[in-house]
Amino acid sequence: MKCGSYEEFFKNFANKTKFKIIMRLKNKPMSVNELSKAMREEQSKISHNLAKLARCSILNVKQKGKQRIYSLNKDTVMPMLKLVEKHVEKHCDMRCKK
Amino acid sequence: MKCGSYEEFFKNFANKTKFKIIMRLKNKPMSVNELSKAMREEQSKISHNLAKLARCSILNVKQKGKQRIYSLNKDTVMPMLKLVEKHVEKHCDMRCKK
DNA sequence: TAATCATATGAAATGTGGTTCATACGAAGA
DNA sequence: TCTTCGTATGAACCACATTTCATATGATTA
């Protein structure tokens, strides 16, 4: 990845938009437009965010005609989310939403 | 934890100061002043940051006389860091500093 | 209980990243 | 090659998190 630091890597999980993208891509790879429509967000917003996610190899891209299909790097992301889930289960108090 | 969301949780790793604190506490628990001096940062800065880390149960606190000793929640944090290390090893290019 | 040490806290100032908007680029088909 | 569709990009703007500074609180000891 061209990601310059651990901090940069983690920023991708520390942001609502990026986190939602990650969640969407857990199910299936998607193009920019698909994501944009599914999330009801501007195309450029999604695009900017995808760029940063891909830069840290959290997502992979492949071209398919005019579209770019983004997919999740599950090897890293899935166990990461599991860890946090466990953490929340253990330490979460009433105020915690998720 | 009183941490309201995954995003809030991850913000602690996505910030230089907080990340440095985490790294320091990998070795041994420390008081606010110890950290402050070791990191050459203002006491209040450290204190503010510690508060957020503790709020998400990334750190634990215990009182010891006048001091408050902060320690790392290794159960969650260590495997988390391992995951990212692996990720970096696999995907990191030349520009990557760590 | 006064003084001191260690830490926390609030608000203002500062810094930084995210979104928006306009536009450019690239691929594919007519 | 012109047009259209899909996506990327740059800069200005905005929102929010972080730091700073002054001060308050809590624990301990003389």
Describe the structure.
Two copies of one chain form a homodimer. The first copy, chain A, is α+β, with helices and mostly antiparallel strands and about 100 residues long. Chain A has a domain of about 70 residues: Winged helix-like DNA-binding domain superfamily/Winged helix DNA-binding domain (Arc Repressor Mutant, subunit A, Orthogonal Bundle). In chain A, about 60% of the residues lie in helices and about 15% in strands. Chain A has a three-stranded antiparallel beta sheet. In chain A, helix 3 crosses helix 4. The first copy, chain A, is globular. The N and C termini of chain A lie far apart (about 30 Å). Chains A and B meet through helix 1 and helix 5 of A and helix 1 and helix 5 of B. Chain A binds a DNA duplex (30 and 30 nucleotides) through helix 4.
List the helices and strands and how they pair.
The structure is a homodimer of 98-residue chains.
Chain A (H helix, E strand, L loop, with lengths): L5 H6 L4 H12 L2 E2 H8 L3 H13 L3 E6 L2 E6 L1 H18 L7
Antiparallel strand pairs in A: 1-3, 2-3
Helix pairs in contact in A: 3-4
The structure holds a DNA duplex (30 and 30 nucleotides).
